[in-house]
């Protein structure tokens, strides 16, 4: 589990004064990058190793609105990891602890040529780190 804080920027709001829905997906990426860094596998390191991890599915349920300058805490957890596919779960809360969004993103792991990687065989330390995070849940 990883906690990441995002402060809503003015440009992220729409004409109604609330955060535009597309920004929550961007915050998920920020939280995901922070999560991987926290467990010792930041994106730069993965890319140096030749691992890319595209998003293959994303879902977001909007529960409450946020507005300019709100602070949103994003808890990122590993929901499921098969060694081939990783599903991350995000719980976003405002400063009062009220859930503003619940989301998931699914990822696969490819080499630079776009070929599927089998992390258990090819990158066992990274595989084990993700298994350890799944076990925490």
Class by helix and strand content? alpha+beta
Provide the CATH superfamily.
Hotdog Thioesterase
What's the gyration radius in Å? 16 Å
Q: What's the CATH class, please? A: Alpha Beta
List keywords for this structure.
five-stranded antiparallel sheet, alpha+beta, 137 residues
How would you describe this structure to a colleague?
This protein is an alpha+beta fold. It has one domain: Hotdog Thioesterase (Thiol Ester Dehydrase, Chain A, Roll), CATH 3.10.129. It is 29% helix and 32% strand. The protein contains 4 helices and 5 strands; from the N terminus they run E-H-H-E-E-E-E-H-H. Strand 4 (85-93) and strand 5 (99-108) form a beta hairpin. The chain is elongated, with a radius of gyration of 16 Å. The mean pLDDT is 97. Belongs to the 4-hydroxybenzoyl-CoA thioesterase family. One of its GO terms (molecular function) is fatty acyl-CoA hydrolase activity. This is Acyl-CoA thioester hydrolase. Keywords: Hydrolase.
